[in-house]
Amino acid sequence: VEPFVHIGLGKTARVDSVQIIWPGRRGDGPLCQTFRNVAVDRVLTVSYAPNATVRSPEPVSEPPLLTELDS
Fold first, then answer.
1. Residues 6 or more apart in contact with residue 66 via CB below 8 angstroms
2. What is the pTM of this model?
């Protein structure tokens, strides 16, 4: 079984960025990967990136589309 995230964006034509924060840390920070100017209506395949940039996640200026729910 492959993990998928399906995100409905309505009439949005592009997403300015998709940021992935991988579990774990390397050195002094989290492993982060950012994709910019992402087209919609497609599958974006992402693999764990052990060579991803070590940095703090980018600040978000708007409320997130997805939030974590307590079960």
1. 7
2. 0.58
Give the C-alpha distances (Å, rounded to integers) separating 30 from 14, 22, 33, 35, 52: 26, 7, 10, 16, 9
- Nearest 5°: the CA angle 43, 45, 47 is 165
Tell me the mean pLDDT in the region 21-40: 77
Distance between CA atoms of residues 32 and 19, nearest Å = 7
From edge to edge, which strands make up the β-sheet containing 29-39?
A: 14-26, 29-39, 53-54
DSSP 31-60: EEEEEEEEESSS-------TTSEE-PPPP-
Query: CA Rg, the chain, in Å?
Result: 14
Identify the pLDDT of residue 55: 62
**Distance between CA atoms of 16 and 39, rounded to whole angstroms?**
9
